[in-house]
Amino acid sequence: AGLRACGVQNVCRLLSRRAHGFYARDAGVAHRKNLGLLRKIMCQESTKFKNVWTTHSASPIAYERGRIYMDNYQCCITSIAQQPRLIYQKSKCAKSEKIEDALLLECPLGEMLPNPADYKASLIVLTVQNWLLRLSADSGEVLEQVYLAGSCCKFFRYLSWDTPQEVMIVKSAQNKLPAAARQAGIQQTVLFYLAVFQVLPLSFIGMLEINKKIFGNSVTDVAVSNGILIVMYSMGLVRLYNFKAILEQFMEQPFDLGQEFNWNGQAGVVGKYPFGLPCNIKITDTPPLLFEASSLENAFQIGGYPWHYIITPNKKKHKGVFHICSLKDNALAKNGVQDMKCCSLEPDWIYFHPDMSGRIIHVGPNLIKVLKLKEVKNHADQMEIAEDFTIVANRENCVNNSVTVTASGRVVKKRFPVLDDDPEQETFKIVDYEDELDLLSTVAVTQIGADGRAHLDFHCNEHGSLLKSIPLKESWDVTYSHEVYFDKDLVLHIEQKPNRRFSCYVYQMVCDTARDD
Predict the structure, then answer these.
(1) What is the 3-state secondary structure (H, E, C) of 272-294?
(2) Do 24 and 101 belong together in one domain?
(3) In 3D, which of 97, 73, 33, 52 has the Cα closest to residue 506?
(4) Of 293, 266, 290, 291, nearest in space to 280 by CA
(5) Which of the 8 DSSP states describes residue 220?
(6) Residue 183: what pLDDT?
(7) Among residues 294, 322, 350, which one ends one of the domains?
(8) Are 170 and 103 in the same domain?
(9) Among 238, 243, 277, 329, which residue is least crowded by beta carbons within 10 Å?
(10) 411-432: per-residue pLDDT in tens?
(11) CA 117, CA 242: separation in Å to the nearest integer?
């Protein structure tokens, strides 16, 4: 009634005006306005990013939503304050308690939860001894614990989301028989185990096995995402199955955590040591196939609107060539073959834009192309790939002549052309998207001798125009592994050097640097 009183009758206009914050009583309007102000302040010329904290470690460093984790998640540091400060420090754990993987768990909006502590962020971790623990993000205290491995599996190693913040998958390492068993002719048919959990409150849905007899001998890996079971094969084949339908069809008996059970001759308590979890989902027949595609190195992505997928033809000579096809009928989109023809050590990469716009980002050494799907004129059933905008590396001072003349007049010919990702030329290394500020961020690096210099640039996500450039103070070695996180007013750079040496550099937004100087 309030909206109609404003004189707006068209539903599309109502939704558009609401998205832009015209109605002050709408949930999230103040938050959107604040983020809009933060974006404007951040992109001002006078705003700087200052390196406020640096640390080094002999163990991996991880970052999750304003928290820096060190010493195998035993140490937690907040990066939100002006100076990063310690949240908690736990005593050093034994090797048997080492954490293999972790996921940050946040309270879903609009959900009623049984315990007040569930409304606070927590960390779900998987230990080397197959314990699944839920830890308080503020203190590291163990809130819940589940023992995973009974007699069926002893090597759970990976955590992932099926539905983010709702359904979690715990995957085992690939089962491999000892050499002696293989020589004795013993066959291993079970390749992987998948345990499925609903989170907040944490509840057990079921556990299933991926068996050669059902899915074939050449299975190399499996994954679950958005209700789809993805099975990958050694010859580049990728097959998709309805995971929810598999759970419903092949569930033998549901179990709850803490429930006493007698299962296949074993009696115990679900999720308690030493019994763990029962394998209560038995796939006895090949599930209906939703879709399959063949792609080099199993590279396969789905996105866009209408639905499309991206593959690389399954031949080594096609590495770096990407085909964008309709999921409906496998038809190649017009201009759907994307090839930058890069001459580089590291290949270019492509993916669907994480902003849910349906666009595609294609990143090469010196060029970033943002592509969009649109209908072919006069052919509504056919789609074409069009260029939305491009971002080009700054190589104005780069001279790439195959023939040079020395001061003495001697003509020197280069036997090989300079690579597109030659370290002495500015090269794109990282491209990311900050969803709350709607900014596309890029890291470009130039290395001269042993000294490499990098800068983080913010681009308008709609048009690609450069809004801000931040030089990173530390040297950047292109042979090391790097991660850069841009989270609102924070920039964090994690570097992995040889011999497992890790460094973390934290930058904070500073508006009045003159006073600090």
Answers:
(1) CCCCCCCCCECCCCCCCEEEEEE
(2) no
(3) 52
(4) 266
(5) E
(6) 73
(7) 294
(8) yes
(9) 329
(10) 666 555 677 667 788 999 999 9
(11) 34
Strand order in the sheet with 300-303: 300-303, 308-311, 321-326, 332-339, 379-392, 367-376, 360-363, 349-352
Domain for residue 305, yes or no? no
Q: Which two tokens stand for residue 157?
A: 């190693």
Residues of the chain with pLDDT under 70: 1-9, 18-28, 109-110, 150-154, 396-409, 411-417, 420-421, 512-517
Question: Within this chain, do residues 168 and 266 fall inside the same structural domain, yes or no?
Answer: yes
Indicate the residue among 294, 325, 357 that finishes a domain: 294
Q: Identify whether 220 is part of a domain.
A: yes
Identify whether 223 is part of a domain. Answer: yes
Structure tokens at 351: 């993916």
Output the furthest CA–CA distance in the chain (Å, rounded): 90
| Structural domains in the chain (count) | 2
DSSP for 53-106, written as a single string: EEEEESS--EEETTEEEETTTTEEEESSSSS-EEEEEPPPPPGGG-EEEEEEE-
Q: Residue 130 domain-assigned?
A: yes
Q: Give the residue among 461, 466, 456 at the shortest CA–CA distance from 493.
A: 456
Same domain, 27 and 135: no
Tokens of 504: 């973390």
Closest by CA to 19, choosing from 28, 7, 6, 9, is 28
- The Cα 271–Cα 260 span in angstroms is 10
Question: Same domain, yes or no, for 228 and 152?
Answer: yes
Query: Could you tell me if 163 and 37 lie in one domain?
Result: no
What local confidence, expressed as pLDDT, does residue 186 receive? 76
The answer on 245 and 119 residing in a single domain is yes
What's the pTM value of the predicted model, to 2 decimals? 0.86
Give me 476's structure tokens: 């950047």
- 429 with 445: CB under 8 angstroms? yes
pLDDT at 16: 75
Q: Which domain holds residue 15?
A: 1-43
Q: Are residues 218 and 122 in the same domain?
A: yes
Selection from 247, 271, 244, 246 nearest residue 260 by Cα: 271
Amino acid at 91: S
Task: Give, in degrees to the nearest 5, the angle at Cα 203 between 200 and 207.
Answer: 135
pLDDT of residue 302: 94
Query: Do the strands 451-460 and 289-294 form a parallel or antiparallel pair, or are they unpaired?
Result: unpaired
